[in-house]
């Protein structure tokens, strides 16, 4: 953190009222390439006045945007998805430079967000109300799904393309206006996506961008003109956002921390299962809220540990820009220190370190924040590496004798983001999906994030708020249902007198 912006590197701008403006703040943070430690840009921690200006811009734009026809809104997002496709390589390169994930994974990050943009273009069928004719004599009732007003989104560092694209396209397509606060660690690709959104035709003031830390987050939660807040990030911050925003009378949805278990049955297809586990545990350097970070080996599947270690050793650790890289750096020096510290605690608390990925040699990137694939066996609940979300390329292995024990173990964990089972038994799969208390379940699918036709349905300690992001659920989150009951009179239905009862006849 620095007090002033340096002229040697570019500064990240705020978007207010359709204009990219330089912040007047005195507090800046470096945006750093995690593979090299090169400073790419400086991001401002916006002032309270700048947040107020962004919200005021959104509030003014809402007056006209809410009246914009569904067809106009849909065509903007049709154009937007085209622009994202055309700029995919550029966007991926920006994302990799500031976040660290490999170029193919960066393209995947963008593509999963692009799917939501495509869904937003279908707003004409998504935002339809209901009607019932003649609910009483000459009386019809129908509903409208009307926009709320100014909405806001707070997004994390690990998916700087996908998660902003979860938020503002659906909110804006519903007729709302939006204030976006990207992660201060990697805001460059988010801002480039916003530039493309403006190019697609989103009017001035409908989408605004502010940057910052705790003060801006609190300002968003407290601001009287913001009606709804969407958040993805850590459990600590998400709980704070949910409590503060709802106390201020806002709608809030907070997707938070996880500890995702992948159950491996002895009858699972061994090669497919091992490939899936390794990819889901170590992809994106483990910095996914849906990473399969905990393998639960049931019965004879415990004999697969040497094969799992052997396959993990084959992954290539390098800078995300380098061809053939499997595992890039973690996002920051602080993240590297935290991951290495948890590995040390795992050893100290008695887990068996069967693959140590600390301090890998990466020629040409000696300053990078690298941790190689790391595996612990003999892990028990109560150990730090089990109880905490490591958010690094660390896979922990727990062993159980039966599927019932595996289900009981997972259901005792406070998190409920995602889980998976690998088996060739339909009976085992059905039992698992029925008895497991986790919101998103994969059957021979390691990362069961649904496509936007559905919604993200993490549960328990991984989610606060009833409605998930994107899909049908988010239409309800970003709209207010208004019910209209109407009767039109003609000579044959004129009232014959005063009726003091509550019923309609």
From TrEMBL:
Statement: the UniProt record of this protein carries the keyword NAD: yes
E.C. no: 1.2.1.27
EC class of the enzyme, as a word: oxidoreductase
Domain of life: Bacteria
Family: Belongs to the aldehyde dehydrogenase family.
Protein known as: methylmalonate-semialdehyde dehydrogenase (CoA acylating)
Swiss-Prot/TrEMBL GO biological process terms: L-valine catabolic process; thymine catabolic process
An MF annotation (GO) of this entry: methylmalonate-semialdehyde dehydrogenase (acylating, NAD) activity
Boundaries of every Aldehyde dehydrogenase domain copy: 20-484
Electron transport as UniProt keyword: no
PANTHER family: MALONATE-SEMIALDEHYDE DEHYDROGENASE (PTHR43866), METHYLMALONATE-SEMIALDEHYDE DEHYDROGENASE [ACYLATING], MITOCHONDRIAL (PTHR43866:SF3)
Keywords noted in UniProt: NAD, Oxidoreductase
InterPro entries in UniProt: Ald_DH/histidinol_DH (IPR016161), Ald_DH_C (IPR016163), Ald_DH_CS_CYS (IPR016160), Ald_DH_N (IPR016162), Aldehyde_DH_dom (IPR015590), MeMal-semiAld_DH (IPR010061)
């Amino acid at each position: 953190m620095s007090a002033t912006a340096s002229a040697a590197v570019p500064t990240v701008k705020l978007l207010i009222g359709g204009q990219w403006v330089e912040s007047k703040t005195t507090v800046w943070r470096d945006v750093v390439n995690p593979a090299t430690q090169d400073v790419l840009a400086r991001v401002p921690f916006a002032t309270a006045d700048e947040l107020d200006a962004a919200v005021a811009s959104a509030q003014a734009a809402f007056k006209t945007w809410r009246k914009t026809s569904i067809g106009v809104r849909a065509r903007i997002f049709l154009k937007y998805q085209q622009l994202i496709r055309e700029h995919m390589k550029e966007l991926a390169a920006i994302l990799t430079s500031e976040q660290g994930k490999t170029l193919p994974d960066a393209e995947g990050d963008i593509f999963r967000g692009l799917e939501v943009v495509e869904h937003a273009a279908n707003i004409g069928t998504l935002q339809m109300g209901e009607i019932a004719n003649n609910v009483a004599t000459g009386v019809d009732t129908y509903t409208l799904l009307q926009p709320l007003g100014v909405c806001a989104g707070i997004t994390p560092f690990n998916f700087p393309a996908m998660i902003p694209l979860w938020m503002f396209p659906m909110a804006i397509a519903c007729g709302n206006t939006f204030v976006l606060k990207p992660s201060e660690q990697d805001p460059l690709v988010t801002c480039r996506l916003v530039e493309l959104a403006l190019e697609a035709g989103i009017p001035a003031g409908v989408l605004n961008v502010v940057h910052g830390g705790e003060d801006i987050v609190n300002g968003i939660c407290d601001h009287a003109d913001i009606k709804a807040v969407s958040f993805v990030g850590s459990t600590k911050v998400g709980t704070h956002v949910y409590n503060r925003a709802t106390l201020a009378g806002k709608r809030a949805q907070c997707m938070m921390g996880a500890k995702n278990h992948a159950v491996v049955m002895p009858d699972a297809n061994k090669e497919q299962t091992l490939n899936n586990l390794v990819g889901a545990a170590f992809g994106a350097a483990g910095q996914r809220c849906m990473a399969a970070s905990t393998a639960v080996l049931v019965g004879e599947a415990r004999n697969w540990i040497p094969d799992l270690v052997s396959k993990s050793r084959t992954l290539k650790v390098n800078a995300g820009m380098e061809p053939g890289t499997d595992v890039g750096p973690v996002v920051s020096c602080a993240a590297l220190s935290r991951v290495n510290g948890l590995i040390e605690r795992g050893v100290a608390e008695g887990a068996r370190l069967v693959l140590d990925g600390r301090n890998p040699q990466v020629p040409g990137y000696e300053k990078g924040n690298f941790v190689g694939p790391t595996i612990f066996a003999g892990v028990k609940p109560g150990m730090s590496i089990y109880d905490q979300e490591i958010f690094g390329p660390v896979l922990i292995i727990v062993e159980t004798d039966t599927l019932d024990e595996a289900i009981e173990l997972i259901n005792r964990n406070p998190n409920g983001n995602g889980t998976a089972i690998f088996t060739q038994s339909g009976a085992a799969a059905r039992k698992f999906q029925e008895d497991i208390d986790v919101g998103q379940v994969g059957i021979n699918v390691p990362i069961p994030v649904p496509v936007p036709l559905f919604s993200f349905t993490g549960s328990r300690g991984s989610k606060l708020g009833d409605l998930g992001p994107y899909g049908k659920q988010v239409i309800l989150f970003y709209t207010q249902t208004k019910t209209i009951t109407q009767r039109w009179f003609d000579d044959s239905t004129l009232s014959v007198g005063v009726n003091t009862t509550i019923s309609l006849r």
